[in-house]
Write the structure tokens for this entry.
Amino acid sequence: MYVYRIMLFLVFGGYLLSPMLMSGWATPGEAWYRPFLIWGILVALSFWLEQKRHLDER
Amino acid sequence: MSGSFVGICLLGIGYMALLFLCALAVERGWISTRIVRHPIIYTLALGVYASAWATYGSLEFASQSGYGYLAYYLGIAGAFLLAPVLLLPIQRMTRTYQLSSLADLFAFRYRSRWVGALITVVSLLAVWPLLSLQIQTLGEAIGRLSDNRYPALLALAFCAMIALFAIIFGASHTRLHARHDTVIATIALESLIKLAAMLMLGAIALFGIFDGPMELQSWLESDGLSHQTGVTALDAGQWRTLLLLFFAAAFLMPHMFHITFAETLSRRALLNAGWSLPLYLLLMALPIPLILWGAQRAGANPEALGSAYLGFGLNSSVWVEALVFLAGLAAASGTLIILSLALSGMILNHLVLIAHPPSHQPDLDRWLLWLRRGLIATVIFGGWLFYRTIGIHHDLTSLGLTSFVGMAQCLPGILALLYWPGANRKGMVTGLITGVTIWLVGLGWPLVSHHSPIVIIPPGLEMLATEPTWYIVALTSLAANMLTFILVSLITPTSEGERAAAEACSVDAVIRPKRLPLLATNGEECKQFLAQALGREFADREVDRAMADLNLSDHENRPYALRRLRDRIQANLSGLMGPSVAQDIVDRYLPYRRDGQTATDDIHFVENRLEAYRSRLTGLARELDELRRYHRRTLDQLPIGVCAFGDDGELLMWNDALGKLSGIEGHRVVGAHRNSLPPPWCELLGSVLTDEHERLYKQPVDLPSGRRYLTLHRASLQGNDTGRGGSVILLEDHSELKWLEDELVHAARLASIGQLAAGVAHEIGNPITGISSLAQNLRYDTDDPAILETAEHIQQLTDRVSRIVDSLVGFSHGGRHKHALEVAPVTVHLVIDEAMHLIHLARSRQDVEYRNDCDADLCIEGNVQQLVQVFVNLLSNARDASPIGGCVMIDAQRDVHEAHITVTDDGPGIDTSVRDHLFEPFTTTKAAGEGTGLGLSLVYSIIAEHQGHIQAESPLPGQAHGTCIHMWLPLSEKDGDATHEPDSDR
């Protein structure tokens, strides 16, 4: 259940802060792959949380 | 364009042939089930979400709004990240109640067939632009590759092939809620193909057109800047609204609902998709800006190509064009297949079957199957018509956003379904109609009529007037929808049925299924009743299927089991013809019997469900469940029988001790009415339940193990506010107590006789002594040899009488309790002779011979009377077991410091099951009434008191029968040089 709360926090936090992702399109000084990098980190985090939840439920 | 008409046809046909081949390989089992059912396949199948919008629409959207195109991917990623709290509860419901579509779910929750019909109509209206978008991208791509030769006809031909595939492999049977491995595997293959094609296109752009990421970055910061002038970033509000729309699409879009919930996939697979689907979508989204920037760098003309089709402008190679076409074809065909399957099921269950109920169809299965196949073809053809008449005049963004805003109108309804049990049908319907009306006039009507949208801006929000139409319509329609929904739900009453359904759907459900008996009393009657609606053959099959699902036998008549059977039949019919029709049929033809009794909670069902959901309980709920399990274990393992009945006479509990006593396992009888319990329990429990007294003492009951005496105690369970009343009965097995009482009565009677005998013996002793003295005197008074001989005979006979009397007196004294055992040297031979003498006095079974082979000098330490008692018991047992003319042999040998005494008979032997308990009280091999089972127990006690031990051996070594009792007793110090008379204490 704690894992679910972390997930809820991540998703709603991401929902509120996500407009910041939009600013990087073709802006000098901003790496074009930045949104994908953040997204990749989020995927890795959710993978880790899923493994943790799976272990908790066993 | 370098593509040719023949080339495009060959590519398309080759691709469709690959799909058919894949489907065939799965269906024929050429591909292992382990692979087909792997979680990766499920994730790839969920990739059906990445429709033509993901391959073409995203390019168009990215060219207009930059990273705004990511909302399409991040919205669904958010929904799947929340799978444990959002998607799993929906999956649980759809599985439990066999719900295969959003309309099924709404009809089930809001308890109305019209709600199902309304959701179907809204879904059709909302999804048609998306359906058209798929076909439109197909037509446009074909047009670009074939120099605009018959794009509409070719698109129609592809639609026909896709429809054929959906009909053959997706509608091969009538049940919607089942796992279609073939479809899942094929959609997964399509997802893989479109992903590979998109990644290759991205790689071509990144490394073919640019010289890697660094060069791209420097281009973006120099020459590329001029190409981005048309990009208008979304503001935060628009971005969040888009995220919300695509978040909702993850579980509201019919094709997503179908793949996620109607295909019966495991909970684990869904949780895995929580990270694997966002990863898939990341890989799908990554090439979009690369393709866009690559095409811009390559000088592609967005005016001529259309910004959605800029991929064709990467370069003029046939392979690049083929990859772009293939990515679009794979995306569009997958979406068309699943959308057509999902929509056909919704139309069938919520429009066709409601308008034409299936009663009295001679071949219902076949009728349903062909109806569904026809609907699949109609849906796809309808999409093509929409594309030709309406879609062709609009860009992909308009079509897609219209569709997503339309489907989002169901969002308040589904959120309330999960999290607000207070929501009701009237609120949901009025809210939905309000939202859909705003959507129709704001986005739908301009799409169809080319007129300006009618946008309603609420007072105070005039600043929205400059925003895009889709944004204003999405905000106002959803806000009006939710407000109306909440207000109407709060001010209108909610029906009882709806409240029960709300509890069943709620995430924090407190489900209290009620306990009422069915009118049908067994499975056969269920078949008969259902046959009135479904036909005999169909009803038989459905009832048999439900019984097999529940592992019920044909003779099942427990009310609890029949209620579960009814639920299962309803769930199965729901998967076949929707929840509304299924509920109508079951309510009408399998009704409950309501003969004045109120429904009470189905405790047994609740408990079973708690057991099933145990791993999901957390915190306080888990603690409470642990407590419940502890109390349940306590009751189950009580060493006395416990059973409980509800007010309606239904058996709610039958613990382990009662199961052992009765030989009936709890799971076979729990849920049965007390009148249907097997004899003698029906009468016995019925008598204590109906008796005015709360106790019945020592009731004789004939059980397979023999006659038992049971004492029953009844207590009434006072119904509190939950209304759970009934009775609990404790059953104590007092058989041993009863036998002991009988034995005590018998022993008391024997003791009286013994006392009488001792008194008589004493009285006889005096005249006998007188006769003996007179006979002795006679020897001195005469020399007549005849008289002397007579006197000698008289003396011998009086001695014999004296010995008999002494034996009787001695034996009657032997059973008395003594504080300390008085021991003395005892000659075994003489003790056994004494016992044999007493046995002879009984004058029964004179045909049995006794042989005392004991050594005359063998002397042990013991109490004569108690040892006589031991041998009397052993010899009488051996006598009773011996056949006619049998022989009982008694032998005794020295064994170091002990005497080893054996009593051997040639009887039938002792059964193994009895032998292990032979020396325990109340163990007997004799017929009822002939033995008390206490004799050998007494023997064991006496031997143990003499510091000896005893064993039984049966059968005799090397023989199939016979019994030998072995005893070891300590030798006397005087063994071998002295003998002691057995009647020393007389």
Notes: Chain A has one domain: 2-20+31-57. Chain A touches chain B at residues 1, 3-4, 7-8, 10-11, 14-15, 18-19, 21-26, 28-29, 31-33, 35-36, 39-40, 42-43, 46-47, 50, 53-54, 57 (CB under 8 Å).
